[in-house]
Design a protein that fits this description.
Layout (H helix, E strand, L loop, with lengths): L7 E6 L6 H10 L3 E5 L1 H9 L10 E5 L16 E9 L1 H9 L5 H11 L4 E5 L6 E5 L2 E5 L3 H10 L5 E4 L2 H16 L3
Parallel strand pairs: 1-2, 1-4, 2-3, 4-5, 5-8
Antiparallel strand pairs: 6-7
Helix pairs in contact: 3-4, 3-5
């Protein structure tokens, strides 16, 4: 991996369409961001007909290895913050259980092992939600276990779980301030 001098954001995309487009817009606002695209996220990109057109300082890393080789950058101090947004109920459950068998769950695990703060935008946060599907907005009803896992993840060290795009934006702004030494 190329030696990088500026610490970066590590942003993992999962297979959730829940505010995927809005999350994409936030990525475009960041400088020095590596976007980790899981196999499921690749499918969502095609469903929503989105292109990976990010600023020049953004690198895109696709899930092409069994051991999630791109996450090794955490051990070299490349990343100051991990963001998993949007995070499927599957990703949240695996993070809670300590399972790291996908690119996003490996990002979360390696961030934790390297004491790097994580921001997780959990999709399943209320008993009834409106979410965007490729054909438009739909109502979904997260299962009790999904809601429980979201609550459990909120108790993990160096993990901030957010429940809306506004909260995600605020968490990123706070973390940017901390990194800049303002907070």
């Amino acid at each position: 991996m190329t030696r990088l001098h500026t610490p970066r954001w590590a942003w993992a995309l999962t297979g959730s369409g829940h505010f995927f487009i809005e999350s994409f817009e936030l990525i475009r606002e960041l400088e020095h961001c590596d976007v980790f695209v899981s196999k499921a996220a690749d499918e969502v990109l095609r469903m929503y007909k989105l292109k990976l057109d990010f600023p020049e300082t953004t690198r895109v890393l696709h899930d092409k290895t069994a051991s999630s080789v791109p996450v090794g950058g955490f051990y070299n101090g490349i990343y100051h913050t991990a963001v998993i947004a949007p995070a499927t109920s599957n990703t949240v459950a695996k993070c809670v259980a300590g399972i790291s068998d996908t690119l996003p769950t490996n990002v979360y695990a390696q961030a934790g092992k390297c004491l790097v703060p994580s921001i997780v935008y959990a999709c399943d946060t209320a008993p009834e939600l409106m979410t965007r599907a490729p054909g438009g907005m739909v109502k979904v009803y997260p299962r009790p276990i999904d809601l429980e896992n979201t609550e459990r993840l909120k108790t993990y060290e160096r993990t901030e779980v957010v429940e809306s795009i506004a909260e995600l934006r605020a968490a990123i702004a706070r973390r940017s301030s901390e990194i800049a030494g303002d907070g």
